[in-house]
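Database export, one record per block. Field names are fixed; values are copied verbatim from the stored entry.
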Amino acid sequence: MAKLILFVLIMLPVWAMTQQTLDPKFEKKIEGLIDHSITTISCDRLQQKLSTPNLYILDAREKKEYEVSHLKDAIWVGYNTFEVEQIEEVPKDAIVVVYCSIGYRSEKIGEQLKERGYSRVYNLYGGIFEWINHGYPLVDHQKKETLKVHAYSQEWGHWLQKGEKVYK
């Protein structure tokens, strides 16, 4: 019995870190691109935490992607043009969740935030694609709910199981 308890205690952090996507092939793709330098948060967990005080959601996609749709109340920070000074109003001890299409760009932005002293930074596992695949809401540039998602490219759009793909 003691060995079983010890095994569970050892494995608990590993199980907690394991993220599940709705599509195992998508998960394999994600795992080939991110290196977990930033702690990930699942779509389900973020959905549960949306009303948490001091939570900031940052969108690390390009502006045209953000304008098609984004998570409600997300702050656009971009990727190629990102500067930490863009979010100087965000307290360093705030909960910061960064997302992009699937998690690669957001992980890189998260690394920059950690380097600049932000202590509670998370990367949304599977990004906006996994968010919409779970059926969670998005808003457009007019803050109206939408099913449209900028799919980035035909290759990446393959991973969108729900929503309306936009490529412009």
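Remark 1: Residues 2-17 form the longest helix (16 residues).
Remark 2: Residues 6-18 have pLDDT under 50 and may be disordered.
End of record.
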